[in-house]
């Protein structure tokens, strides 16, 4: 459970978060405050807002989720796991433009990073899913990815005594679909990358970014990039037509989720079809297709200087791009 | 069955209360609050969404995160409402409509976000056009056209009216017509056209979206939902309230029940306590009664009745038994007296009220009785509540114990058995008292019998050594009751000479071999010896123990009597006197050796024969008289004559005493016959000597009286002379006084007689004459003697004084001898006072009656008196205190008085002098 923005939640350090949530929810209700509305800031001078330094999750469930995230029993052939594509040791995705499905076919879309997934309002490229649990469930049942079924997965997990015990401890019951996907989602909610230099600047540390980077940010805004790439995730909260002023890539689907630009410097290749291998290319093509402009190299460099300040850290370590394109599973 | 009901109630009641409590709790309250919260959240989120959308449209909100959060909040609120709906099973229509509205708003929001982003982007592009170097190079016309586009865009952006849209489209068209198709500006121009075209679509589109968003009908379903939940909540609350009311009522009922049960419990507890207290009192008093001695029992029964009465709240408590006469034990508070006839009448009243079956009568309130005798009787006795219970006495007449409540009406709530217990205690005590009294009586009888017969009893268990003595046994042993008797103790008291005998006897009887019949002696510590006879018999008790029971008789007296008798027999047999006994008919029953010696008859000759053969014929009549006298009681002593076997007459002194049997009845006579022939002769001689001696004494006394006699004789002679002379003178007168002469002659005759008398008396005194026994007046005798000694009295300046009692009985005696005694005593008295220094010379002679017929004469003087030695020897012959005395006077006097059957004795006079008394037996005038 991610506590959305309640300032109180930041200071609490309760081991059993589910209980805390209830308490906080109650307190919130008592104050007559609606969490979202209460957080609604006055017209922010900046379209981008910082990632919270930490999120509170049930550590036991998150640990279980982390385990499941890498558990190959979630796939029908016991050969792949979530982490097969979402490499949390690097950038939360893979270096491939499109990863290979369980059927050996390339997947429809480029794999987006799993980091900060919880900060996104819309999930996956098409933006049809808004819940991490649902997304995990879909992933298990997706014939292209895991090709398994909830029954299969739960059956396998239940056969594992150690895991059974962990579930009992974390959920008070044997693993079932809800618990499995909740554990995974809980883990995913913990995958945030605070501490980027830009966030530090947003929080008032004026020296966190250079003048050039600041200029890049100003350019980013004045070009209109921030019309879509805004919010805490610098995107991820709306769908948009692509190729407004010219084609961007694979035309399908017509509406794609505006991707988050967090850690964009380490999550190449880009676009839903993975067709932009580098960041300058992506910026150039975005300018042409979406802004109707042809950006100059200095402009592109300036914008990229800014974009690089958006790289944060996971577990105290700045995210890094994978060392090379990996051939995931053959 | 009852238990099952109780258990069922105990199980059901908490279940019912819990159910009511649960139903009474408004379980929906939290859910309802949540619903209300959700509705509020929804409204807030919706307002926030709409506000944010407008802000984003105005370009004031730069990110869409808040939109997402608002949407999620709305979804969340709707989901909560739905969940509550489902839980409460309510109509889902309104929330479904609300969810649809949310979905619609989300769709519109998504469209808005996409469009607004592009719009903002294009507006930014257009806004920056002026600063764009690419466009800055445009020619003036184009620049003007481009400005027109921008202006039109701004107009449309401000107010998306169809006119403005058309104007924009026209300006775009104009600019597009003028725009270069290639060259450096071509791209910029193309971009402007593209943006403008986009904007011309988007500007109205966004605003339409906005309007649609705001117009989404969420208000109505929300209110419907709110109303739905409110209605439900109201219904739930009403139900809960009803249950709470029921719960409250049930609780009240429970409270009442608990209070009722508590009161009942309290009542029962107090009843139980009272019962326990009463039982305690019963137990305690039962013990008290048992521990009492018999003499205390009656008082104790009364006290215990009081205890019971007090415990029952009664002011009177009594036991009435139907014994004849009826036995009543009664107590009353403060010892107030009972009304008349009460409680004796309680018994018949009880019998009448209880009927033949019931053993108790309890009247809680006398006033509540139906009118009648019973009520009247109880009311008369002042009773307000009455409690009576029968006293069962096996084998005896029944009785009751009763308790009168005269202050309160409420009777005791104690159960009957407790009262019966109390009644039993009293009954036992009474029974014990009766038995005690009987036992006591028996014991007293026994003790009396033992004491009277001097027979004690004892019990002895040889195996245990235990010995039990009766009171009389203790008395015989002269031991205190506290001493515990032992065989050793018994042996200690046995005379040492008998100890072996007794030890053997004890051994024999301890084996139960034979009955004991033994007489032995006890040696008392002070040396007295007791003779006891012991009889014992061994019996076996129920357990086979041998027990010796026996009797112990003190036969000391009998023994002593036997010894005495045998001694007496020895005395009798060895006596010199003849001693024999006869029946009243004169038949001889015993005959001693003395009798054989005296009379010559052997015992076997006499026993069974009449003793009359020993009596001379002329004395037979006397013996008859003796027997008569004997029958009247008293013994006789007389002298008579008896005839011996060989016909010799012997003078004897006979003492006849009555022989009485044990009952005191006269059965015969004992006769002691002494041969006094010798004594008789000696006495006759002595009598002669004594008579002579007396005569000598008389003469001597007369000699001493010569002067007095002379004077006595002289006087009449002098009188004779003078009277004769006087007579001569009267005769010689002229005329002769014959009358006076006659008187003179009469005096002469009188004086001559007097002189003759004096002479006669002197002659009589001197005369040797045998003593006579005539009835005579002692007073006359005294006066005669006084006349004789008057001259001597005067001569000695003694004042004489006579105090003679009238109506004295005549005495039987010799006048002359008694005169002699009196003369002697008076002369002694005068002589005693004639010494020098005797200032007061007072002689007093008195006579008086003593007893029935005796006469006592006292001669009292105030002379020198008598010393102790003289007093002792006064009446010895030849003892005298006078220098010229013969010492015979008083000895003779005593002999004379003794011969008259009287006594002569002397006592000192106070303050000095002596008194001589003699007593003479009076003569019974009828004898």
- Nearest-integer average pLDDT of chain A: 83
What is the strand tally of chain B?
22
Kindly name the structural category of chain A: mainly alpha
- The tally of beta strands of chain A, per DSSP, is 4
Reconstruct the topology from this structure:
The complex is a heterodimer of chains A (330) and B (927).
Chain A: H1 7-11, H2 17-30, H3 35-39, H4 59-69, H5 82-85, H6 132-141, H7 150-159, H8 161-171, H9 177-189, H10 197-202, H11 211-223, E1 239-241, E2 255-257, H12 279-291, H13 297-308, E3 313-314, E4 317-318
Antiparallel strand pairs in A: 1-2, 3-4
Helix pairs in contact in A: 4-9, 6-9, 11-13, 12-13
Chain B: H1 2-24, H2 28-58, H3 65-88, H4 93-127, H5 133-136, H6 140-158, H7 162-178, H8 184-215, H9 219-291, H10 294-312, E1 316-321, E2 327-332, H11 346-354, E3 360-363, H12 373-380, E4 385-391, E5 399-405, H13 416-453, E6 455-461, E7 466-469, H14 471-477, H15 487-493, H16 499-510, E8 516-523, E9 529-540, E10 546-554, H17 556-574, E11 578-583, E12 588-591, H18 593-599, H19 603-606, H20 620-631, E13 636-643, E14 649-660, E15 666-675, H21 677-704, H22 706-732, H23 738-766, E16 774-776, H24 778-795, E17 799-804, E18 811-813, H25 815-833, E19 842-850, E20 854-860, H26 868-873, H27 889-899, E21 903-908, E22 914-920
Parallel strand pairs in B: 17-19
Antiparallel strand pairs in B: 1-2, 1-5, 3-4, 4-5, 6-7, 6-10, 8-9, 9-10, 11-12, 11-15, 13-14, 14-15, 16-18, 19-20, 20-22, 21-22
Helix pairs in contact in B: 1-9, 2-3, 2-8, 2-9, 3-4, 4-8, 4-9, 6-7, 6-8, 7-8, 9-10, 9-13, 10-13, 22-23, 22-24, 24-25, 25-27
């Amino acid at each position: 459970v991610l506590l959305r923005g309640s300032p109180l939640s930041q200071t609490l350090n309760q081991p059993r978060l589910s209980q805390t949530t209830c308490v906080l929810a109650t307190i919130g209700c008592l104050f007559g405050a609606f969490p979202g509305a209460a957080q609604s800031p006055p017209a922010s001078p900046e379209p981008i807002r910082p990632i919270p330094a930490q999120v509170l999750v049930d550590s036991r469930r998150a640990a279980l989720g982390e385990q499941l995230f890498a558990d190959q029993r979630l796939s029908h052939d016991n050969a792949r796991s979530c982490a097969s594509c979402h490499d949390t040791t690097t950038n939360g995705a893979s270096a491939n433009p499109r990863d290979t499905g369980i059927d050996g076919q390339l997947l429809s879309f480029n794999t987006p990073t799993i980091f900060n997934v919880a900060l996104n309002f819309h999930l996956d490229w098409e933006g049809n899913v808004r819940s991490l649990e649902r997304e995990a469930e879909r992933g298990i049942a997706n014939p292209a990815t895991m090709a398994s079924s909830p029954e299969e997965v739960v059956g396998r997990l239940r056969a594992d005594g150690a895991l059974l015990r962990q579930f009992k401890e974390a959920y008070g019951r044997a693993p079932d679909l809800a618990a499995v996907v909740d554990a995974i989602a809980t883990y995913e909610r913990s995958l945030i990358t605070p501490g980027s230099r830009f966030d530090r600047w947003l929080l008032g540390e004026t020296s966190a970014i250079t003048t050039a980077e600041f200029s890049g940010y100003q350019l980013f805004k004045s070009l209109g990039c921030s019309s879509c790439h805004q919010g805490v995730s610098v995107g991820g909260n709306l769908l948009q037509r692509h190729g407004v002023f010219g084609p961007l890539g694979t035309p399908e689907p017509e509406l794609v989720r505006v991707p988050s630009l967090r850690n964009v410097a380490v999550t190449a290749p880009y676009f839903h079809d993975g067709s932009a291998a580098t960041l300058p290319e992506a910026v150039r093509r975005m300018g042409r297709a979406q802004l109707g402009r042809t950006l100059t190299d200095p402009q592109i460099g300036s914008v990229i200087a800014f974009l690089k300040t958006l790289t944060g850290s996971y577990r105290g370590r700045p995210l890094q791009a994978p060392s090379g394109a990996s051939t995931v599973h053959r | 069955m009852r238990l099952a009901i109780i258990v069922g109630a105990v199980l059901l009641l908490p279940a019912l209360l819990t159910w009511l409590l649960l139903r009474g709790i408004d379980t929906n309250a939290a859910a309802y609050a949540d619903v209300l919260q959700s509705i509020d959240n929804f409204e807030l989120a919706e307002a926030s969404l709409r506000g944010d959308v407008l802000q984003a449209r105005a370009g004031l909100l730069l990110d869409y995160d808040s939109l997402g959060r608002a949407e999620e909040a709305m979804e969340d609120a709707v989901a909560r409402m739905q969940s509550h709906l489902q839980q409460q099973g309510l109509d889902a229509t309104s929330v479904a409509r609300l969810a649809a509205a949310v979905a619609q708003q989300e769709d519109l929001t998504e469209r808005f976000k996409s469009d607004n982003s592009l719009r903002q982007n294009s507006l930014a592009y257009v806004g920056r056009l002026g600063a764009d170097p690419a466009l800055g190079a445009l020619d003036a016309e184009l620049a003007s056209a481009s400005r027109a586009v921008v202006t039109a865009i701004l107009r449309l952006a401000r107010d998306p009216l169809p006119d403005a849209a058309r104007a924009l489209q026209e300006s775009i068209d104009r600019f597009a017509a003028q725009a270069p198709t290639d060259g450096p500006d071509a791209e910029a121009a193309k971009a402007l056209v593209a943006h403008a075209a986009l904007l011309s679509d988007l500007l109205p589109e966004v605003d339409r979206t906005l309007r649609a968003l705001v117009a989404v009908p969420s208000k109505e379903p929300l209110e419907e939902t709110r109303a739905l939940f409110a209605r439900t909540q109201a219904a739930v609350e009403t139900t809960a309230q009803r249950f709470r009311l029921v719960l409250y009522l049930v609780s009240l009922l429970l409270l009442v029940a608990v209070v009722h049960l508590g009161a009942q419990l309290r009542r029962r507890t107090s009843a139980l306590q009272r019962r326990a207290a009463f039982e305690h009192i019963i137990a305690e008093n039962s013990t008290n009664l048992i521990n009492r001695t018999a003499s205390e029992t009656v008082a104790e029964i009364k006290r215990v009745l009081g205890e019971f009465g007090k415990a029952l709240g009664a002011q009177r408590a009594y036991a009435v038994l139907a014994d004849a006469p009826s036995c009543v034990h009664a107590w009353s508070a403060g010892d107030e007296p009972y009304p008349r006839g009460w409680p004796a009448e309680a018994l018949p009243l009880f019998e009448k009220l209880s009927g033949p079956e019931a053993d108790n009568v309890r009247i809680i309130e006398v006033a509540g009785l139906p009118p009648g005798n019973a009520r009247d009787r109880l009311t008369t006795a002042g009773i307000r509540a009455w409690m009576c219970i029968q006293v069962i006495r096996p084998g005896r007449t029944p009785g009751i114990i009763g308790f009168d409540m005269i202050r309160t009406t409420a009777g005791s709530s104690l159960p009957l058995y407790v009262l019966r217990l109390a009644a039993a205690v009293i009954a036992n005590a009474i029974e014990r008292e009766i038995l005690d009294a009987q036992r006591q009586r028996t014991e007293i009888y026994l003790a009396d019998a033992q004491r009277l017969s001097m027979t004690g009893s004892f019990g002895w268990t040889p195996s245990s050594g235990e010995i039990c003595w009766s009171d009389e046994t203790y008395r015989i042993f002269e031991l205190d009751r506290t001493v515990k008797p032992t065989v050793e103790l018994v042996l200690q008291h046995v005379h040492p000479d008998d100890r072996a005998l007794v030890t053997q006897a004890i051994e024999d009887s301890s084996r139960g071999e034979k009955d004991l019949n033994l007489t032995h002696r006890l040696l008392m510590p002070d040396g007295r010896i007791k003779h006891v006879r012991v009889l014992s018999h061994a019996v076996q008790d129920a357990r086979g123990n041998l027990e010796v029971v026996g009797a112990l008789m003190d036969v000391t007296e009998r023994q002593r009597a036997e010894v005495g008798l045998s001694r007496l027999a020895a005395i009798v047999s060895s006596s010199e006197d003849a001693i024999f006994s006869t029946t009243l008919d004169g038949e001889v029953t015993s005959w001693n050796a003395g009798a054989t010696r005296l009379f010559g008859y052997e015992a076997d000759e006499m026993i069974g024969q009449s003793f009359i053969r020993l009596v001379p014929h002329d004395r037979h009549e006397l013996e008859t008289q003796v027997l008569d006298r004997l029958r009247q009681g008293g013994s006789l002593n007389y002298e008579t004559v008896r005839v011996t076997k060989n016909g010799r007459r012997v003078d004897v002194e006979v003492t006849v005493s009555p022989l009485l049997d044990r009952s005191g009845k006269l059965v015969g006579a004992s006769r002691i016959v002494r041969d006094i022939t010798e004594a008789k002769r000696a006495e006759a001689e002595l009598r002669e000597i004594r008579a002579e001696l007396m005569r000598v004494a008389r003469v001597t006394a007369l000699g001493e009286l010569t002067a007095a006699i002379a004077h006595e004789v002289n006087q009449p002679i002098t009188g004779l002379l003078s009277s004769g002379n006087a007579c001569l003178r009267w005769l010689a007168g002229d005329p002769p006084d014959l009358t006076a002469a006659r008187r003179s002659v009469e005096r002469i005759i009188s004086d001559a007689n007097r002189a003759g008398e004096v002479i006669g008396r002197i002659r009589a005194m001197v005369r040797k004459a045998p003593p006579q026994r005539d009835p005579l007046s002692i007073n006359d005798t005294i006066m005669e003697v006084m006349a004789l000694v008057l001259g001597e009295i005067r001569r000695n300046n003694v004042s004489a004084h006579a105090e003679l009692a009238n109506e004295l009985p005549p005495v039987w005696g010799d006048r002359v001898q008694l005169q002699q005694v009196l003369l002697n005593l008076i002369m002694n008295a005068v002589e005693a006072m004639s010494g020098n220094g005797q200032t007061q010379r007072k002689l007093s002679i008195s006579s008086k009656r003593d007893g029935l017929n005796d006469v006592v004469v006292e001669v009292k003087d105030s002379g020198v008196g008598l010393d102790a030695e003289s007093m002792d020897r006064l009446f010895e012959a030849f003892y005298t205190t006078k220098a010229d005395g013969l010492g015979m006077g008083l000895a003779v006097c005593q002999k004379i008085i003794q011969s008259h059957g009287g006594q002569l004795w002397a006592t000192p006079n106070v303050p000095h002098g002596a008194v001589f008394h003699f007593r003479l037996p009076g003569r019974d005038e009828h004898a």
